[in-house]
Amino acid sequence: MKKILILITFLLILTGCGKSMELVCTKKVTTDSNLIMNNKMEVTYKDDKVTEVTQTIETDLSQTNYNSEDFIDKLIESSKEEVKALNDLSGISAKYEKINNGYRYILKINYKDLDEEKIKDKVNSLYGKKEYTLDEFREAFLKDYDCK
Length: 148
Known about the structure:
Elements (H helix, E strand, L loop, with lengths): L1 H14 L5 E10 L5 E11 L2 E12 L8 H10 L1 H8 L4 E8 L2 E9 L5 H4 L14 H8 L4 E2 L1
Antiparallel strand pairs: 1-2, 1-6, 2-3, 3-5, 4-5
């Protein structure tokens, strides 16, 4: 009996039962106007439930008519209210950063801390509900992404 318990314990440790896992998915989009967007979704899940998501979108304007410091500054400035509204919600943080020839948008969602009543009327479906299974999340948001 003792050997069986040791074997079961060893198998649980080996398989990482209850351990958080991460799925990293990427997608590159180039528009007709040569705007390049590198999208990355880092999905943390535990026991098949998505617990956190970090979405990073890096936008490269170097090949467009919009590649100017002034345009990028105005774009980031015009997004301040949207970012503040997101940051006021529990479980969500968002920010824009200026990068070389463009900007980066980072949205972090901690599904355990989301307040369903406060998010139900929000447009972005990534935080439109409090709980996703990994398969639901893949089907809803990662169809066009390369995941590893």
